[in-house]
Amino acid sequence: MILGQFIILGAALFSLGVYGVLTRRNAVLVLLSVELMLAAVNINFVAFDTYARDVTAGGQIFSLFVIAVGAAEVGIGLAIVLLIFRNRESANVDELDLMKL
Amino acid sequence: MPNQYFGDYITVLVFMAVGAIIVGGAVVAASLLAPNHPNKTKSEIYECGINPVGGGWSQSHIRYYIFALLFLIFDVEAIFIFPWALKVESFAEAGMGGFIFVEMVIFIVILLLGLVYAIRKGVLRWE
Amino acid sequence: MIDYHALAPELILAGTVMAVLIVDMLPVRKHWTAVVGLLGLFATVVPILTLGFCESLDFCDYSGSREMFGGSYVIDAFSLALKGLFIGSAFVAVLLSVGYLESNRFWQGEFYFLMLASVLGALVMASSRDLVTMFVGLELVTGPTFLMAGWRKGEARSNEAALKFFIIGVLSAAVLLFGMSLVYGVTGELTFTGIRAGSVGVLDGDLSGLFIIGVLFTILGFAFKVSAVPFHFWTPDTYEGAPTPVTAYLSVISKTAGFVGLLAICYLAFGEVTTLWGTGLWVLAALSMTVGNLIALRQTNVVRLLGYSSIAQGGFILVPFGAAIAADVTGSDLEEAFFATVTYLVIYAFMNLGAFGVVIAVGNRLRSAEIKDWAGLFSYAPGLATMLGLFFFSLAGIPPLAGWFAKFVMFRSVLASGSGWAGALAVVAAVNSVIAFYYYSKVVVSAFMEKVPDGVPVAEIREQRTAPSLQFALVLTTIGVVVIGFYPTLISGLAEAAKTFASGF
Description:
C: mainly alpha
């Protein structure tokens, strides 16, 4: 098994996610980008776990927790987006500028 | 070992290249051979022969989202049951079967509490 | 097996969380949820005390360390001290919320459910000694707060606060996780002791690059949580838009939880690479203090001012971390730094909760948090104005109020390490204390000296009473700020006990 490829895949996916978070205007797409970042984390964890043959399977367990927490976050995020959509008829992040420095 | 590994990748690459050539060749051949007479009627949306009415976006009711959210949460919580199911036998052999069973019962009771809460708040009512 | 006595605080609080949810479903008045929550918090204090004074109790069988789950969950003096702090702060935060929620017809049961669930996460964080537990605890702390920030559902500002907080929160969680995954990859361990053992000499090895990125990303993830500059931009907006009790909660408990995670990870997991995180946190501390204070200078809204002030206070809390920058810091220096951080956290909780309590009480009457509307507060609400002065001067660090002692131990720890970089940070902190004094005193002076602006219904406000729960919270925090100021040994004992944690150096 060649670990480098997995690290590069993880890093690339993570960078894509960061790019998405920074450039997307729609809150739902921002959420999707964050999920991309979490997927990158999971790839890293499982790859490292398998590579090191961790007897406690720590990396795999961690990735399970990441999945569960990620789902909970999506739940919270969609609830907030729905709330905003009800009030403003829009889910665009850059229209939320009532408060400025 | 690494050479063997990359060797496998070359097979994949060749396969992809052959696929691309076949598909690309078909598209190019079609555009060369097919007659081309564009008109307005052709570019309209076709739906059972009836002229389309209204916009392409339709709103779905907000309760679908709430159901989807609930489903998502309960679905994902199930991943904690799989590792438990893998280990429950070895725990039982070590004489901790009752303990590990009660642990999972507590977990499921907490999940059920969430479900009862959702029912109590009328989220699952469909009218 | 599992040590149920050691886990009792978490178990009781978890039970309370579910009890609150069940009470919310029953056909009773909603304020019972708050009562159940407060009782549960009280009950949680009992096992914390019995664990803390275990040696002197007959029924308590204490045998060395209370480690569970292969060393990933530890009950020691440090975690107990911070659990006590979390429970105490949560108690005050619930008291602050009661009147606020009832007066505006908000959803109540869910609010306390979420708040207590978040406190449960904070308790877990105080004890967790591995990356998985720490991460789950952190998410349990922050998850509910996203929803609490948007509690004023119909109000656009509150929605905006929640969404900004949420996006930054999940982004920082992802960054933190990526850092953790790299650390795990390099060291092959998830427990802090394992990571520490695995990171010996790793900076000279082939994987040093991965490890440095991992450590920095982990620190960066926490920097978002504790809103250190330059990762602070969500803070003022969220603080202003969220309901004020939630702001108090965010600025004290959620922030303290972030610092606790940072403490445990830096000192225990990354103990071999102190210069690495020391450098990063040195920069963050200096930036947070300076930028936070400079922007606070031009704020006209009290809540925003407190938002920026809490960023600056966060910078002060980071100062002892930054003192680890020099390569020659020894064990006793780090212990001293650790002591200073814990002391500061405890005192900060009292001052800031109190300050927000005053903001809620005054905001209830004036319906405004603009500083200019607060002018002449003393003439018609002398009690609240006095408390305002008390908490603000304590935040500024004026003796003999508690904030003075916090700043004192902070400076002492930095100067004790004796390196040039630490000295430079002390100078930055000193200059910032002066700037901070200016804007804190500006609010207080305006409340005491200036005349009441037109349009303030003075007679009407004189009639209004502060909700009993809020009064109680204010009395508690006032006593805390004054008593700790005069008898700092009260909490230095607590922090001293916590210091054993860092004695591994």
